[in-house]
Amino acid sequence: MKGGCMTEEKKVIGNCILTRKDNYAIIAFNRPEKLNALSPDLFLSLQEAFFEIENDESVRALIFTGMGDNFSAGGDVEEDIKPLKDKSAIEFKEYFNPLCEMYMRVYNVEKPTIAAINGFALGAGMELALMCDIRIAADTMQMGEFFVRMGLVPEAGMCVLPKLVGMGRAKMMCYTGELIDAEQALRIGLVEQVVPEGELMPAAEKLAARLAKGPASIKIMKRAINELGSLPLEQTLNASVLYQFAASRTSDHAEAVKAFLEKRKPRYTGK
To answer: Which residue from 2, 115, 229, 235 has the highest number of Cβ atoms inside 10 Å of its Cβ?
Structure first.
């Protein structure tokens, strides 16, 4: 940052736009005329954009969003869903493996992730939002597990959704494909924040900038929460000692202690 101005670098990658802003990045789906439906081409663009910054240590937080009025309307019926019936079991698995791998990599990437959800987040679009650590919704947002409307089943949602909203609510959403509006999503724990539509990206970027300035212990906490969240308390406590040890060996921990003693704000490097 020079003279108080934020640096910004935009790159068009197929059907996605990758924007770098200082120490965080934004991946925006750029197929607004199709409600950012996940066609094979959009998925490949998403992969390329994500892989570019996945292990880039200068990018310390990541936002996913959609260009235009919608996050993503899910799988493209013509290009993605309709061809499924012609695939053998082996071809079907080969087709879905990259998607499942992508979900896992977003879920486990060692940087905090934010879904800035505008308009519709349906089916696979909702699944991707569920893979993010934090979901911020515009007040016009609507989410839905639309797989049942196509006679299909969710992928990641069947695992992650019950952890967020409870087993009964997750089953209701999956069985019915009901639409959940922003206020209801906030009430049941599906999103963490709701803001007016015009304030969505400023709110998401404000949080990303804050998290990107945080200590290395954030990525350790993310790993611990993902791995230990469903374990019994005793196992969690035993494992937490190892994570605490790892955090205590980071440069950011040493900087936090030093800053506290010197009565100043810490200057974290994410290491």
So the answer is: 115
